[in-house]
Amino acid sequence: MENFILYEEIGKGSKTVVYKGRRKGTINFVAILCTDKCKRPEITNWVRLTHEIKHKNIVTFHEWYETSNHLWLVVELCTGGSLELVIAQDEHLPEDVVREFGIDLVTGLHHIHKLGILFCDLSPGKILLEGPGTLKYSNFSLAKAEGENLEEFFALVASEEGGGDGENIQRRCMRSRVKGSPIYTAPEVIKGMDFSIASDLWSLGCLLYEMFSGRPPFFSESFSDLVEQILYQELLPPTPKDSTLPEASPEFVNLLDGLLQKDPQKRLTWAGILQHSFWKEAFTRKDRDSSILVPFFQVKNSYLSQQDMESRMKELIYTDADLIVTPIIDNPKIMKQPPIRFDMKMLHLPAYTAEKLIFLKEHDWHDFLQQVCSQLDTTEKNTAALRAKLNLLCYLCTVANHKEVATKLIHSQLLPLLIQQLRAAPNWDIRAKVARVIGLLASHTIELQENVPVSEVIFLFLLSYCERRIVN
Questions:
Q1: CA distance 291 to 240
Q2: Please, which residues have CB within 8 angstroms of residue 401's CB and are 6 or more apart in sequence?
Q3: What class of enzyme is it (predicted)?
Q4: Alpha-carbon distance values, 226 to 75, 94, 186, 194 (Å)
Q5: Residue 413: which residues within 8 A CB-CB, separation 6 or more?
Q6: Contact assessment for residue 34 and residue 19, using Cβ atoms and an 8 Å cutoff
Q7: pLDDT value of residue 122
Q8: Cβ(213)–Cβ(224) under 8 Å?
Q9: Phi/psi at 116 (5° precision)
Q10: Backbone angle region of 164, left / alpha / beta, with phi > 0 → left and psi within -120 to 50 → alpha
C-alpha cells in the first residue's frame, strides 16, 4: 500500500470503508476499500471473478493487499455515487433516462452472463456512476460462476484462514452470508432454487421499475409480507410519484411484464430483451469483433469551445481535497492513535483547555506563557524533572491542535525555547515530544509571520533524524 496516497472517505459499508486514493507519482485516482479480515471470503470472491474483466460497464479491479488488520482492494474510482443515491435524491427518473441507464445495465449484465458469471445480488447500491454518467457494476462479493456452490467456496476460504477447524460449522454460518437483498430476489430463489440467468433478469426488471417509480415493485418492512408479495401479488404498472408526469409507455410496461414474470420459464430471455422495442434499436447492431449484440451510441450534437473544454477538464481533474496529501502510514482514518494524556497534578500551572486559552485576557495569557517557558527551561536533569517536562509537553500537544492557539504559540517566545530544547535536550524522549509539539503548531497555525525561524526548525529536524539513525 506504500504506492498509494489516501484522501477523504467517500463511502462506508458493513465493516468496510472506501477512500479516494491516488497512485504515487501519477494523477491516476482510484477507490481504495479497507475491509476487516472477517470478510476475506467476500473479497476473495470479488477478486477472483473480476481481476481479468475489462468492460466499460464493470468497475475495473486493479490490485489488492493484506496488512496486519485489514484487506485492501484497489479498484476504479467512480465519482458519481451509486444508482441508489440517484434514486433517493431524484425520487424517480424520466423514462428517457431510465432507457439510457437501462442500456448500460443490460450491456454490463449481458457481458457478465457471457463470461459464465451470475451476479446474484443485483441492487441499486451495487451500481456506481462514472463522472460522465456511465453505470458500472460493482461489488461482486456474492456473485458466482454458473453451477457453483458459493457456500462451499466461502467455507473453503474461511477454513484456510482458520486452519481448517470447524468446517461444518463454517458452512452453516456461510449460508446466511451468501444471501443478498430479498427485495430484488426472484420468486424461484426465495422458494429454494439456485440463482440463474433468469433470476438475475428478474433483479434487472426490479431496478428498471424502481428507477421509474422511485420504489421497488414489491416492498414491505415485514420479511414475511415481502415474500408473500413477491410470490403471489400481481405486478402493478409503474407510476411516478409525481402524478403530473407522463405514465409509463406501453413498451416499457411490456418489458417489465416480461422481466417480472414469477415463472422463470415464462420470463424474457436475453434474445427477447435485446430485441425489445423499448430500447429503440439500441441493440440491433452487431459488433465487428464479436457475435454478441452491443449498443450503438450516437455522439450528441453539442459544441464546446476550447476554453470551455479546458475549464471543464480542470473541474473534473482537480478538487481541493486532492491537494491534501494524506499518507496511508499513521493515518488516523485507518490507524487509531492512542490519545495523548497528561497528569494535571504534575503540571504546576492551570490546565486550560484550548477553548479557554483563546479567551484569556492579555495579562492572563502572558502569565500562562511565562509559567510554561519557566518549567520548560529548567536545567534540572533528575528523573522527576524530566517526567515533569514530558508531562508539560504532552499537555502542549493537546492544545496545539487548535488553530488559534497554535497561531498564538508559534509567534510567542515558546517556539525559540522549543528549538533550543530540540537542539540541546540530552533525553531522546524530550526531543521527540518537542518535535511533536512543533509539528502540531506548524500543522495547525493559520498564519506564519516572516520572523518565524522555519529554516532552523527544518534543519534541526533533519539533524535529529540523522543522529537517531546513527545511534540506531
A1: 37
A2: 354, 440, 443, 444
A3: transferase
A4: 34, 27, 12, 19
A5: 369, 373
A6: yes
A7: 94
A8: no
A9: 85, 20
A10: left
Q: Mean pLDDT for each consecutive 10-residue tract of the chain (472 residues)?
A: 85 89 91 92 93 94 90 93 93 93 97 95 94 92 92 83 51 60 93 94 97 94 93 92 85 96 96 94 62 41 45 53 47 58 82 86 89 85 82 89 88 86 76 86 83 72 58 48
How many other CB atoms are there within 10 angstroms of residue 413's CB atom?
A: 12
The residues assigned a catalytic role are 121
CA 311/CA 19 separation, integer angstroms: 26
Which residues of the chain does CATH 1.10.510.10 include? 80-326
Indicate whether this model's pTM tops 0.90: no
What is the pLDDT, as a whole number, of residue 337? 58
Superfamily of domain 80-326: Transferase(Phosphotransferase) domain 1 (1.10.510.10)
Cα(31)–Cα(81) distance, integer angstroms: 12
* Number of Cβ within a 10 Å radius of residue 5: 21
Q: What is the 3-state secondary structure (H, E, C) of the chain?
A: CCCEEEEEEEEEECCEEEEEEEECCCCCEEEEEEEEHHHHHHHHHHHHHHCCCCCCCECCEEEEEECCCEEEEEEECCCCCEHHHHHHHHCCCCHHHHHHHHHHHHHHHHHHHHCCEECCCCCHHHEEECCCCCEEECCCCCCEECCCCHHHHHHHHHHHHHCCCCHHHHHHHHHHHCCCCHHHCCHHHHCCCCCCHHHHHHHHHHHHHHHHHCCCCCCCCCHHHHHHHHHHCCCCCCCCCCCCCCCCCHHHHHHHHHHCCCCCCCCCCHHHHHCCHHHCCCCCCECCCCCCECCCCCCCCCCCCHHHHHHHHHHHHCCHHHHCCEECCCCCCCCCCCCCCCCHHHCCCCCCCHHHHHCCCHHHHHHHHHHHHHHHCCCCCCHHHHHHHHHHHHHHHHHCCCHHHHHHHHCCCHHHHHHHHHHHCCCHHHHHHHHHHHHHHHHHCCCCCCCCCHHHHHHHHHHHHHHHHHHC
Q: How many other C-beta atoms are found inside a 10 Å radius of the C-beta of residue 239? A: 15
Residue range(s) in the chain whose domain bears CATH number 1.25.40: 341-471
What is the C-alpha radius of gyration for the chain, rounded to an integer number of angstroms?
A: 30
The partner residues of 326 in beta bridges, in order of sequence, read 6
Check whether domain 341-471 has CATH 1.10.10, yes or no = no
Q: Which residue has the cell 474461511?
A: 158
